[in-house]
Amino acid sequence: MVFDHVAYSLFAMFFFIGQVEGRLGPSTVVLDHTSGFEGLLFVDDDLLGVIGHSNFSSIRATTCVFKGKWEYEVLISSQGLMQIGWCTLNCRFNQEEGVGDTPDSYAYDGNRVRKWNVTTTNYGKSWAAGDIVSCLIDLDEGTITFCLNGQSLGTAFSNIKTGPGVAYFPAISLSFKESVAFNFGSRPLRYPSLACYLPLQDPPTTDLTKANRLLGYMKTVLCTGIDPQEEKLTEKDSASWQLQGEPTVLVTLAHIFNHFAPLMCKVYLVEDVLMNFLLSILEGGGSVDEHPLIQQLLDLFWLLMEDFEASECLKQLMMSLLRAYRFSPIIPDLGFQIHYLRLTTAILRHEKSRKYLLSNFTFDVLRSVVFFYIKTPLRVKEAGLEELIPTTWWPTRLDKEGKDEKEQRHESAEERLRRRAYERGCQRLKKRIEVVEELQVQILKLMLNNKDKATGEASRYIFLNKFRKFLQENASNRGNPTVLCPPEYMVCFLHRLITAVRSYWDEGKPKIPGSINSEEAYVPPQMFYNGKVDYFDLQRLGGLLSHIKKTLKDDLATKANIIIDPAEIQAASMDDLDEDEESGAGQCVQRPSGAAAVGGALARPSWLSSPTLGRANRFLSTAAVSLMTPRRPLAPPEKVKVRALPVEQRTEEDIEGSHGNDGLLLGRPPEEPDQPITEKSLLEILDGIVMMYNLSVHQQLGKVRKLDLYGLKSRISDRVLPWCVQRSDILEELEKSQRVFSEKLNHLSRRLAWINATIYSKEKMLDVYWLLRVCIRTIEHADAAGSLFAFTPEFYLNVGMNSYSALKNYFSPAHSMEELPGYEDTLTQLAAILAKQFADPRIVGTDIKDSLMQALASYVCYPQSLRAVERIPEEQRVAMMRNLLAPYEQRPWAQTNWILVRLWRGCGFGYRYTRLPHLLKTKPEDANLPSLQKPCPSLLLQKHMAELLTQDKDMAASFLNSVLNQLNWAFSEFIGMIQEIQQAAERPERNFVDTRQLKVCATCFDLSVSLLRVLEMTVTLVPEIFLDWTRPSAELLLRRLAQLLNQVLNRVTAERNLFDRVVNLRLPGLESVDHYPILVAVTGILVRVLVDSDRQGIARAAAVLLSDPCFQLHSIQHLLGEGVASGGGANHKHFSLHAYADYISAEEEQKVEQMLAFLTEESKQAAATTPTSEDDLCPICYAHSISAVFKPCSHKSCKACINQHLMNNKDCFFCKATITGVEDYSKPTATSSCHA
């Protein structure tokens, strides 16, 4: 047979290795974790896997070679900066220099695609996670060669130093967080060289021969039957063999297993002999069910082997399968991946084996998640994508924001043919990937089986407890990436788990009367407070769990019939205080004895670790509720104490409940419907899925969407080429660049097809959409529970917001959110949550409140989501606007202000642009200019705002005072920063302005503009707030407004002033700082009060504006380019609204001209009037006439000064007496003085 031939060939190849000279060191080759390292590294228990934990760490093996041909393999787990190769004992490494940076050390770096030996040159190909690098050294010829996935990269080094005293060790240098696993020969090499290179570690040749021979005997017995009638042996198909066969056959097998079982505890023999034999059984094709022989063999293993032998064999078999799956090359039909997944499925179909693996293997070292990952090929040619997708296509026209245009456009016949051919290729690829995904789902469904209770606890409950601990490990170690499950694995795992859970959910619905289907799934609120599910140290909406239990213990008793033990609350509080100390102590005490940590006593972290030892982690139980289940249901229900069990101690009854015990759903609040949902174990898995999305899946979804750059550069080249016909040298370079970009674009187009099929397909989009709806329904049910809403974990709100963002931004243009079922209703539900929760007093976390505010600000930017906000009930809309108009002090006012501005954009003066007009004038072709969303104002929400400000005078005054205060602060900060920037620019020595300072400066400017726009909106919607002086604060608000407007105008419009000089520097980071945004905002306010108001309002506004000592008419003239001095040079262009005819309408220009004419005339009349004597001026500001007298002290000032003073102080300016009242004052006439 072919298998026997392979075994014999291996035997012949390695028979003389033990006698070959040229090697020094232990027979078992591992990494030298005692003295052969530099820097800080994490080394696995088997001393073959390593993770860098410092800047540039190095480590070598324990064995060296000085003669002959040798090789070893490195399994690349991360594709970052690493240098892999050989070094001598004399090489000295440090945190800056590693393998290849010193004499007598040689390395290959697939990250930078170079080879290193003191100097460096280009060499080889780039590697990716999942690749295998073979390192070969020929000490007879003096050469070093590297191979990538079995393909030689050519001779890297020749004439290397050899001779007496020179021996080379395998060695690696790797940067922080990079990880690899070595294979020196402890396992069969994946790509053994055909040129007589030997692995550094001798294979177990004697055991190989023995194992192959015993396996041959076993196959012969399985193919042999006994005819009892003729009393002779007969041949039969081994697939038809049954364990309940002839006793003689079983006894014969027992003799074989007596010798075979000890061999199956060795990883080399399991991978080379057993795994290949089992794979050969499935080579005939067909479903896994058609090959019962594997099930029968596993029965034999558990029957004829000792338990420790069977368990070790099974664990090594699964580890070998996992490595084979992870490091198999991608081929067009994904044949390798399918082959290994089929065998994994066949093994997990065996009940006893499945439960053993779930209990001792799954998630313990994060390995089984790899089975659900489909890696993306870095090299599309080697993956066969060129044959599968021969025609590439890319969207050729983008809108100004760099996104695909949604409007229908003309498509040429050639473009249409290319697109359709590309889509057909993508569909072929997707069908092949779906085969792998279906096998992965089958594996998960086997793990979630809850019917296999005959032999002990059902598989699902074992899986559930392991899954929860897996989530805890990833949630508790977010600051230490080396111990986390890679996010790309989590994405695939999440989608497979959703498919499996929904399948079981809908299959079980008919068996549970009154239950809901998976489309209506949600997590009931009692799971958040009854202590049955541990949420580790994850934040709750109401703050720390111990604090919530203290403050809401009465509500828990009255609403959920749960009593909290005071002693337990105190214990939980102490645990919160000492959590860090206990965590550190726990890790030290429970550190695995076999863990090897190089460079210090560090806990073993890596998911690459040896399978022989599980990860020992302290399990943090934060539930402070003690659970004692009543024996029978009580009506009315009694108050019950509840106790939280550690995950590993929970049973099926604790989860599902029985005999009146509600299990996970103990403590139903009265607002929650009294109806079954589904099996309670599925609810906890669903809760874990939501948590998993929050931990890393959303972040990973956003990382992959970065492929538009090359398409953009290619189009820029197309645009520039026609202008370079006169310069042949430039034209040649551009054409060369265009070819490079075109090749890269074709490569990315095929990679994008793979990414779309595995991550951004329609099915994956529906999964994320389903998760969004789960979160929305969960939040709605929790919100209905009143004060108990505080127990809800923060991540439910985070996932609700992030999943919506992913659907909107990450899955387009291939799929649109508008195509999703119930899209508008879902948007409205999410809008209602954001509108209510952003100011919900039950939510105390600063970060989650900021996230809610930012999500609402993003929501009102887009027409579809803004319309959804307008569809929520009127009562909720009005409450939202009331919260937005609350005073800005003591809360994140900047985000609130952005929301109000976005409701106004499109209605303000010259406020209809999508790109800043001054940038389009200076850099019209720059595609990287900052851009804004298209204006989509909400007249309905503006109406609510106007009604609220009109009806509630106190709220209107406090809101506007806070806006004016913030404007004064933001603009003052901006002016201070540009002074520093100007001073730095004028110094003779070369200075670099801190980019952070520039960013803060631009932010202060943008805030000033947005605050001015909110004032413009307010004065437009409710002008009486400023102009109706019967309102208590109207005059003061108008005077404060005039003062700030004059300050802004004077600072920005003064000829050759500080603002002008900084704008003309054109510093990167200050692109948004220019005259147009801020002057147009100020103009909008002035036009509204001086042109669009009634006669009385215009007169009051003009009088206040002109009476302000800072008023200068030339600042108004500057808006239209009038009254400007001729200095500045011919090239200096002065600002004028006339230059922005595309953004400012003729009607708006006319109003500005009308305002200028009116103020010019009023200024002349004011200048002609008799000046007020100094005695009649306010002694505080010397700008206005005395108009108020204080009671009881009778001191005087103008109304503006005393009103502003009384906002913060009740004492008189002069005598410090307490002011009890203020009366109007008018100067007595001369006649009355004479009579007196």
UniProtKB/TrEMBL annotation:
Q: Which PANTHER family match?
A: E3 UBIQUITIN-PROTEIN LIGASE RNF123, RING FINGER AND SRY DOMAIN-CONTAINING
Q: Which lineage ranks, top first, belong to the organism behind this chain?
A: Eukaryota, Metazoa, Chordata, Craniata, Vertebrata
What sequence ranges are listed for the domain RING-type?
1178-1216
EC numbers listed for it are 2.3.2.27
Q: Which InterPro entries match?
A: B30.2/SPRY (IPR001870), B30.2/SPRY_sf (IPR043136), ConA-like_dom_sf (IPR013320), RNF123/RKP/RSPRY1 (IPR045129), SPRY_dom (IPR003877), SPRY_RNF123 (IPR035773), TPR_RNF123/RKP (IPR057987), Znf_RING (IPR001841)
Primary subcellular site in the record, as a coarse category: cytoplasm
The protein in question is named E3 ubiquitin-protein ligase RNF123
Location of region: Disordered = 648-674
Q: Which reaction does it catalyse?
A: S-ubiquitinyl-[E2 ubiquitin-conjugating enzyme]-L-cysteine + [acceptor protein]-L-lysine = [E2 ubiquitin-conjugating enzyme]-L-cysteine + N(6)-ubiquitinyl-[acceptor protein]-L-lysine
Look up the domain of life of the source. Eukaryota
Originating organism: Electrophorus electricus
Single Gene Ontology BP term? Answer: proteolysis involved in protein catabolic process
* Assembly information from the UniProt record: Component of the KPC complex composed of RNF123/KPC1 and UBAC1/KPC2. Interacts with UBAC1 and CDKN1B via its N-terminal domain. Interacts with RIGI (via N-terminus) and IFIH1 (via N-terminus).
